[in-house]
Every structure is written in C-alpha cells, then in structure tokens.
Amino acid sequence: MSEKKKTHPAKKERLHSRNKHRERYDFKLLTNSCTELNQYITENKYGDETIDWFNAEAVKILNKALLIHYYNLTYWDIPSGYLCPPIPGRADYIHHIADVMSISNNGEIPKGQHIKCLDIGVGANCVYPIIGNSEYGWSFIGSDIDPDAINSAKKIVTSNSNLKGKIEIRLQTSSKNIFAGILEKGERIDVSICNPPFHASLAESQAGTIRKLSNLKNKKITKPELNFGGKEGELWTEGGEKRFILNMIRQSKQFGKSCCWFSTLVSKQSNLKHIYKELDNIFAAEYKTIPMGQGNKSSRIVAWTFLSVKEEKQWINEGWS
To answer: pTM of this prediction?
Structure first.
C-alpha cells in the first residue's frame, strides 16, 4: 500500500520556459520510444512511477529514452564509467545561450546549420550538440582530450542520420590548449559552450560524491558510487573549476575576433569574482551572468565577447541572416 500521495508542482519552474523537461517524466511515452526502460521502472512509496536514481544503468537508459523521444535519435550509448549528464540541465544551457544570442539579434534566436557552436569537452555523451542541433538546427564542433570519449561521440553522430554532417568531433592533443589545436586558421564560431570539470582532484570528487549520497539516502555512505558516472577531465582537473575557467578566459582573447560569444557554466558562486576580474583584465567588451536552477541546485552561465557593438552588428549581418 502506497503512502499518502505527495503533491508535486505541475512544472519545474526553475527550468527554462522552452525546456521540454519541465513536467514530470511520462514513463509511458518514454518506454514507447525505448522499451529497454521498462525493466528499470519501479513505484516509489507514493505510488508514482520512477527509476532507482542510484542505479547507474537505469539512469543511462532513462537518458537514452529522453534523447530518442525528444531529440530524434535512433542510437545513443556511452562506455562504462563515463559521464551520463542530466538531460534537463543540459537543455537549459542550450536555451539560455540561445537567449544570449537573441539579445544580440534584435530578439530573434539565430537558427540553422550556418550557426556554428564549439562544445569544449563534448564527452562520450555528445549531449549538448544533440540538443542544440535538434532545438535550433545549429552545427557543432565537439572537442575533447580523451580519445575514447571522442570515439564514443563520433559513433553517436555516425549512427544517427539526422546528425551526420552537422556535428564534427575533434581530438584536442594538448592538455594546455582549449581553442588552439581545435579551431582552424580563419575558422569562425558563433558561440562556445563549456561544462568545466568541477573538482580539483579525484579525492575531492569522491568526497563530494559521498556527501551527496549521504544526504540523499539520509545515512552515512562510505563508497563513492557515481550514478551519473564521470572520469578525470569530466569531474576533476588540476586547480578545479576556477583554474580551468580562468585559463579558458585568457586563451579566448587570442580568438576574440573568431567567436561572437564565449560562455561557460560556473557551479561555484565564489568563483565569479575571480572570473569578472579576469574578464576585466583582458578587456572583454561585454560580459553577463545568466542564473540557472534545477531542483535545489543553483548554477549560472557566464558569457563574454570581445566584439564591439559595431563589430557584433557586422558579425550578425554577415553570418546570421
């Protein structure tokens, strides 16, 4: 017998208004699109259909179902242990960065394959390019330093006819470079996006996972089992989020006339003051912060440009019409 049914908000109001995942998951629809999901569906204590959020395979198959149902895929998979990101949060970034571009474009979101985006750290999952192409028709370059992640992302692209020719996956061979070695001479991109590694070390990452699991399960957890997976470069890097973003900002200056808008997720609010200081130091023409939220988690996007108002207008007239 289920407990007295818990009331849920009709919509997840913190998600972007265009996000397809604002309502509770419709498992009947999702299992129609991906029958594999059936074996992982259970009832919670309130009698609602759900999955075991601590089961990594169940989370992966839910992601697969969401991508097949909402983003027109026929194939999606990732190797064991790689990051399986929450789809609603990834979609939110794409919609918010579309709004940043629309402000530059008299309120109209630029759409179509001629709009080129760079996803820094595309990962094995290739989720940002999938959503960006499906929602707005944008083409993508996805970069990563991990050859196995590159191979996985390439397989996703080549296995879906609607992605072929629209997403190019490129290996970054230098651990020091972010844009150099990926962008070719004279190549222009309209926007760059990035979900940087959060932690500064494996130990810090594992400690964070243990805290999260202990809070979720209301008991002390000692083993850091990741329901969303994640490897070095996806979850941790030397210096953590702060050093990675500051390095990216410095390197973006060299490509300031090759990209209209640079952007990154920033998980730690305490890092913002350092980010703003660095953007001032390198004379960014404009920067802005866009708040984001999913469930109880708050985050934000920081976006910046080196183009003057006149240069930005010229960029848009030449490439976005």
So the answer is: 0.87
